[in-house]
Amino acid sequence: MHWGRKRRFKNIEQGLRIFEGNLKSQMKISFDLDDTLIPSRLGDFSTERRAAFQRWMGVEPIRQGAPALFASLKKAGHTVGIYTTSFRTKARIRFHLMTYRMYPDFVINEQMNRRVLQQYRVHSSKYATAFGIDLHIDDSVGVLMEGERLGFRVLLVDKMDEAWEEKVWKIVVGE
Fold first, then answer.
1. Which of 36, 80, 130, 157 is 20 to 30 A off residue 68, Cα-Cα?
2. pTM of model > 0.70
3. Domain membership of residue 160 as a residue range
4. Which letter, b or e, does each residue of 35-72 get, where b requires 16 or more Cβ atoms within 10 Å of its Cβ?
């Protein structure tokens, strides 16, 4: 059975450059929930079709294209998760997303967010840098302003933007 060849480098520096280059291409990406992935009112934006069991279990609708975007970002090697100021439990958030076949690598809810913001003594609703997040996707202009003030990247996604997935990909690939 052939398991592949080990890659040999001419020197350690060459190997480290390749390793560092691979690290830079991998991003830690977070999504907000309310009004970004989950509409506050039906009709705010297009949502995925909910199965009968999802409706019966009270699972909230999710933005059209979110499951496919999550899966493709993860398949490309990115770490993808949720950063929300919602008081939903982490287990509830994971269950909700799991019903759409979305498996976040991390979930940051308001309880965890407050604890970390207090440790950093930051007066803000979000501080993605504290969690090592490279890109945060949100609908809030306020979070965008906090990102500019505190030095973390925010992609603002409008409710009416049907091409929101393309915007995310353009930022991720650096166009």
1. 130
2. yes
3. 27-173
4. bbbbbeeeeebebbebeeebeeeebbbbbbbbbebbeb
